[in-house]
Amino acid sequence: MQQQQQQPTVAFFGATGGCANACLALALQAGVHCSALARTPSKLHKLLQQLNVSESAIANYLTVTEGDIYDHQAVQKTLYVDGRPVDLIVSGLGGKPRFEYGIKATLDNPTICQDGIQTIISAARSCPQKPRIVIISTTGLSDTRDVPLMMLPLYHWLLKVPHADKKVMEDLVVAEMQKPEEERAIDGYLFVRPSLLLNGDGDGLSKIRIGTDEKPAVGYCISRRDVGLWIFERVIHQASLADCQYWGQKVSLTA
């Protein structure tokens, strides 16, 4: 009889965000042991219920640490499941849009992504086993045009601040991986760059178009649930994490 591969353990940050939350729900439904950092655990619980995650799955497979991404101790605690360091980190960190003077678009926290990834990397440095990390980023960061021409004004005006934050976040992760292997806090990375995010059920895995940084998939939008589905199916739900073919890449997703 073929021995069943052991499923990875996964730590989620930004777990109440649509993409990460959808991925977490699928992982719990599949019996994957997960941990999550949440400022309001009851909100996370409610969101998972709305995605039809059973109470038994939440109780058996999810460990929630109350705190925020600036709490080094809470982040470090989230990187462990049952006393052992997690195999994988999924980060869906992001701020909430805010308008200054009624017209200037910014975020409630304009540096949440870069600050958060620095905390995660710092906390992971003490883990005896280096985790891999999947980071939900955005299109609009590539040197090659990865958004439709009609959407360029939107990206340059409305999304300028969050995109600048996500670019610094990506650069910090790449810089970490350029260190000597023995000095790195992580074992590998994957940037997931979805097009404009929408709520709703999504179109399913077969409808998702995938691109690379050199040859992006150009499209208008994608469901948050489809992004979470893609991360679950293409990274977590493999025989092993090493079987994911996208490590070290910046993958654009659109429907």
Automatic annotation (TrEMBL):
Residues annotated as transmembrane: none
Alphabetical list of InterPro entries matching this protein: NAD(P)-bd_dom, NAD(P)-bd_dom_sf
Residues in NAD(P)-binding domain copies: 14-233
Family statement drawn from the similarity comment of this UniProt entry: Belongs to the avfA family.
Entry protein name: NAD(P)-binding domain-containing protein
